[in-house]
Amino acid sequence: MKRAVIGPWIALILGALYFIVPLIATFEFSLRMRRGEYSFDAYRVVFADARFQATFGYSSLLALATIVVGVLLVVPTAYWVNLRLPKLRPVIEFITLLPLVIPAIVLVFGYLRLYNSSSWLPMTSHERATDLLLTFGYVTLALPYMYRAVDNGLRAIDVRTLTEAAQSLGAGWATILFRVILPNVRVAVLSGAFLTFAIVIGEFTLAALLDRPAFGPYLQLIGANRAYEPSALAIIAFAVTWACMGLINLVGRGARNAAPAAP
Amino acid sequence: MAFLEIDHLRKSFGQLTVVEDFNLAIERGEFVSFLGPSGCGKTTTLRMVAGFETPSSGAIRIDSKDVTAAKPNQRNVGMVFQSYALFPNMTIAENVGFGLKVAGRAAGEIMSRVEEMLALIKLPQVGGRYPYQLSGGQQQRVALARALAIKPKVLLLDEPLSALDAKIRVSLRQEIRQIQRELGITAIYVTHDQEEALSISDRIVVMSQGRMEQVGTPFEIYNNPRTRFVASFVGTLNVLKGQVVDAASGKVTVDGQPISGATHLDGAKPGEIRSLALRPEAASLTDPTTGANSLQGTVEEVSFLGSVVRIRVRFGENAISLDTFNKPSVAPPARGTKVTVSFARDALLVLDGAEAA
Question: Long-range contacts of range B257-265, CB-CB < 8 Å, 24 or more positions apart?
């Protein structure tokens, strides 16, 4: 009996050490910039760097754009698949999983070949157009997470009956989607949105090869040339990701308290 | 012209025809039930009236207007679903007022209509709650209020009580009927529960394998079933195999004992086997009155059902169940007791078709 209680604790402690020790080591190293004592100098340097602010701001903006485009693309698609095309679900799931299998480098070379300055749609010849291309690239990279989150949310509610109930009360498709379906998958959409944010903030390949001033390439640049600042940046990026996860939990709990799904 | 007309309606999914040549005229304010087993096409027919399924052929007219091709949100029909289908993100008041808000009604009008509807379903205090805070029965009453709030031309109810427990089912079905009468609204009710259909309907449409078997009042359906299916599906029925003695006078023998029906046996030849039906409540263990039928048998099983005692008596190859009221002063017969079962001649129904001997 006692062994049964101790076993899971040992597994938990080993697992926690596996994840936490490298993190503590990175954090500890990031505090060593001042010789002989711990300080937050590395963080001060990072936050004072104009390039940090510019790249972080740029990536945050693109993350928001990615979330908007992703939600507008994924929610109606997943809704329609659940409602009218359930037989197509395996096909759609396969397509949404492709970004996990196809490396970002392949994706970006495809973009460069299709949309270079001498192509029929020269999206890389202008900065704003390249930003748009990068946003679409991010939407593709985040697709597995966004689609799964939304699809799980839709499966948790009776999409068909809710749709028919709204239709019988006179509602059209836009009303059904925005006033009945979307509010009931809000937590799922937010989960997908925060995961998308975390992915976009740390993404390197697409931004570097499209030559855009994003946070990922900045992280790489600092890592190649400085000693303590990369560790500080790694901790900052980690904190941003965990803040996103925390927000998912908070919003999810808030939504559950406000309007839980009917049993 | 009837208020709701369903004209030669047919629905096929590929090679499979699920509703075949469905014709029905429903008068304004009438309560009609579609009754049948799972897969008989009753829900598909209802969904075609609601606009959720497109008929393969045929027409649906509501108040003289052809709505066959109209979208569900353009038909002005209220629908109550088995799973309640309340919007989980909205309060009860928001749920009830949803249809009015979609129609662009003023906030004041919506509020007073919501209050009126909640009072109608006797839940005036729940407007601020969410669906998950109500019981199943309360949720279904709210779903009814929501469907009625838009003042629909027709109210459609798709097995609305199936998810509720037995006691609530009985009280809620009476409440639904009372509200329907009060508002004078035309209603179609889908159920597989014959007791439910018999107790609340003006007329019943019994369906089997996509076809209408019989349309009639509950009294007609129960007492004069036109087909073997209706007879066996509606109520409990004893089916006896009788050998024809004289078709003209309706005389047959059941396990060698002579009995006769009130009607003659059309086209039957002596010696042929015919199916005869008898309701449990039509038979008794009392001595036969003059002219009544009687059969000698042995008590095989006694089931105590509370107010009623069901006794199964075997005659040989045939057996029947009969119902007697429970009387605390009279003990039911024990198994193995020899008894005489009597029943009136006109209680014996002759079912269609001859049986192979």
Answer: B257/B295, B257/B296, B257/B315, B259/B293, B259/B294, B259/B295, B259/B348, B260/B293, B260/B345, B260/B348, B261/B345, B261/B346, B261/B348, B261/B349, B261/B350, B262/B345, B262/B346, B262/B348, B263/B350, B265/B350
Question: Could you tell me if A1 lies within 8 Å of chain B, comparing CB atoms?
Answer: no
Q: What is the mean pLDDT of residues A57-73?
A: 93
Instruction: Of B10, B3, B16, give the one whose Cα is nearest residue B59.
Output: B10
At A226-261, the pLDDT tens digits run: 889 989 988 988 888 788 777 767 776 665 555 444
CA distances from B81 to A93, B204, B318 (A): 30, 20, 43
Q: Which of B48, B87, B102, B153 to mutate to test the interface with A (most CBs of A within 10 A)?
A: B87
Dist. CA A122–CA A129, nearest whole Å: 8
Interface of A with B in 201-230 (CB under 8 A): none
pLDDT for residue B65: 94
Q: Which residues of A246-263 are buried (b: 16+ CB within 10 A; e: fewer)?
A: eebeebeeebeeebebbe
Domain ranges across chain A: 50-255
Q: Is the ipTM of this complex over 0.85?
A: no
Burial class (CB in 10 A: 0-12, 13-18, 19+), B341: buried
8 A C-beta contact, residue B5 and residue B64: no
Residues of A in contact with B98 (CB under 8 A): 166, 169, 171
Return the residue in B73, B146, B157, B158 with the most chain A beta carbons within 10 A, the one to mutate for interface testing: B73
Assigned CATH class of A50-255: mainly alpha
Two structure tokens written together for B183: 């508002």
- Total CB pairs under 8 A between chain A and B: 81
Distance from CA of B196 to the nearest CA of A (A): 23
Q: pLDDT tens digit string along A177-220?
A: 999 999 999 889 988 998 898 899 889 999 999 999 999 999 88
Residues whose CB is less than 8 angstroms from the CB of residue B176 and which lie 6 or more positions away in sequence, other chains included = B144, B157, B160, B189, B200
Which residue in the set B73, B131, B143 is minimally distant from A167, CB to CB? B73
Q: Is the pTM of this model over 0.90?
A: no
